[in-house]
Design goal:
Elements lengths: L15 H28 L5 H28 L2 E2 L3 E2 L23 H19 L9 H24 L4 H5 L7 H19 L15 H20 L9 H28 L4 H18 L5 H18 L2 H5 L7 H19 L19 H31 L6 H6 L1 H6 L13 H4 L2 H12 L1
Antiparallel strand pairs: 1-2
Helix pairs in contact: 1-2, 1-3, 1-7, 2-3, 2-4, 3-4, 3-6, 4-6, 4-13, 6-12, 6-13, 7-8, 7-9, 8-9, 8-10, 9-10, 9-12, 10-12, 12-13
Length: 446
């Protein structure tokens, strides 16, 4: 009898469809950073608007260069001791072929590297919302470079890199509940504990100056998040990406409604800021869990996260930490909620056969794994971020002076203002004769 012939599995081939899909998703994730800038920019006072925008935009420059030089290698290179990666061919992208495929997938390495770069950009930008009004731009830029190097790149390897300890343990994080949101939220808490409160915290009104800008930013974030989440499956040949796409919409809607309901019961009104914040809370919570839960599970995840985050944003007044734009309350709490709820609502019918307490054999196994990933990332990011902020503060100084903070950080750090009010009386030019209109305009400009 002739021996059986075993055919080798056919190697993956370049898929034009998946490649095009992932390039679109990469662009969608990139638009989230300007969206975040608008979201945060509208939430601060007029005198801090430009600084808030710039704190997001500078991340697009700094992290891109670091990613090419060594960040991609640290995050996704060959595993070194389950803690970090390194592949010399990834350094400077010198050894990557233009049609070389990412192992096990049908997209080029360049496309995978580009997609992951967009995650690396937005994660430190998320931290900036907690530090509004009071941080030197130079100090912030240095913090972004150091934090990306010693916190984000290693944590990304733990969670998503082959051989990373959380990856091997079986921690589920579809698109960044631990690596992005818990990481950024814990970092924000660590930094604000070091640099202290804004001048006038809990005394002066610090209301958002432009809620339309906040809603525009929220809309861009919601739109870009479909690429952030659905793209993280690196293709949609088996439908998991489609499940993540619809769950993203479902959880976000549920969280927004839950936040508004809580707000109405607690404070008596449905606010625009509450709608935007609730939507972001849902987006955060479904990011780690959307590939593991059913659509009904996504409703539960979103609703629970919406209420928990709405409750959490007030803790800063109770405990006295100045989280300017509620990064801790939304991203840290939402990321923890979404990651841990996998341990309850994982259905076994999505990205893996892992099930939560409410499904399968009702095992707590996945919940313990989620706890390990959540609290390890939280502790590491909190401690290291606080150390970085302390070192920067003791060397070049982290904060602007009190006078500069009161006068406005936009003028102090950027020599610009977001809005030109010099033409506020320009209506005269539309009704006065030309010579008189010119005189009136000159007086207003003066």
């Amino acid at each position: 009898m002739a021996p059986a012939i075993t055919l080798a599995a056919e190697a993956p081939k370049l898929s034009a469809a998946n490649t095009g899909f992932m390039l679109i998703c990469s662009a969608l994730v990139l638009i989230m950073t300007p969206g975040l800038a608008f979201f945060y920019g509208g939430m601060v006072r007029v005198k801090s608007t430009l600084n808030m925008l710039m704190m997001s935009f500078i991340s697009m420059g700094i992290v891109t260069i670091l990613w090419v030089l060594y960040g991609f290698s640290l995050a996704f290179g060959t595993d070194k001791g389950s803690l970090i990666g390194w592949t010399s061919d990834f350094v400077g992208f010198t050894g990557i072929g233009k049609v070389e495929l990412w192992p096990g997938y049908t997209i080029p390495v360049y496309v995978f590297a580009t997609f992951q770069l967009m995650f690396a950009i937005i994660t430190p930008a998320l931290i900036s919302g907690a530090l509004a009004d009071r941080v030197k731009f130079t100090a912030w830029s240095l913090f972004v470079a150091l934090w990306a190097t010693v916190v984000y790149f290693p944590v990304a390897h733990w969670v998503w890199g082959t051989g990373g300890w959380a990856f091997d343990l079986g921690v589920i994080d579809f698109a960044g509940g631990t690596a992005v949101h818990i990481n950024a939220g814990a970092a924000a808490l660590g930094v604000i504990l070091v640099i202290g409160k804004r001048v006038g915290f809990k005394k002066d009104p610090m209301r958002p100056h432009s809620l339309p800008l906040v809603m525009l930013g929220c809309g861009l974030l919601w739109f870009g998040w479909f690429g952030f989440n659905a793209g993280s499956w690196l293709g949609n040949d088996d439908g998991v990406g489609a499940l993540m796409f619809i769950n993203t919409q479902i959880a976000t809607a549920a969280a927004m409604l839950a936040w508004l309901a809580y707000e109405k019961i607690r404070h008596g009104a449905f606010t625009t800021l509450g709608a935007a914040s609730g939507a972001v809370a849902g987006l955060v919570a479904i990011t780690p869990s959307g590939g593991a839960v059913s659509p009904l599970g996504a409703i539960a995840v979103g609703a629970i996260a919406g209420v928990l985050c709405a409750m959490a944003v007030g803790l800063k007044y109770k405990f006295g930490y100045d989280d300017s734009l509620d990064v801790v309350g939304v991203h840290l709490v939402g990321g923890v909620a979404g990651s841990l709820l996998i341990g309850f609502f994982a259905s076994g019918g999505g990205q893996s056969d892992a099930t939560g307490v409410f499904y399968g054999d009702h095992s707590f196994d996945q919940l313990w794994k989620q706890c390990a990933g959540v609290f390890a990332v939280l502790a590491y990011s909190l401690v290291v971020s606080a150390i970085l902020a302390f070192l920067i503060d003791k060397t070049i100084g982290m904060r602007v002076s009190e006078d500069e903070e009161i006068a406005g950080i936009d003028q102090a750090e950027h020599a610009e203002t977001a809005y030109d009010f010099s033409g506020a009386g320009g209506g005269a030019a539309r009704i006065l004769p030309a010579p008189l209109a010119d005189t009136a305009t000159k007086k207003v400009d003066a």
